[in-house]
Amino acid sequence: MPTYSYACTECGNAFDIQQSFSDDSLTTCPKCEGKLRKLFNSVGVVFKGSGFYRTDSRSGSGSVPSGGSSSGGESSSKSESSASSKSETSSTAAS
Question: DSSP character for 49?
């Protein structure tokens, strides 16, 4: 069951209560019968590892994370350039 935080707008009484999702929100303060408001807190979520950032799945311009696809791109361009230089030398040798 989730825990909800409430605070009274008149006396400042703050408390936590466990309620089911189907239960109605509390509206009156148990101390002074004043109006309650629900408090919202930040969620404690920590994203660890790769795949959570905008740049993790992108290729092309911008910085590439370490261990990314930059080394694969360089090796393919090197093999293409060496293949083109081989074909140029073989075509000049055949002439």
Answer: S
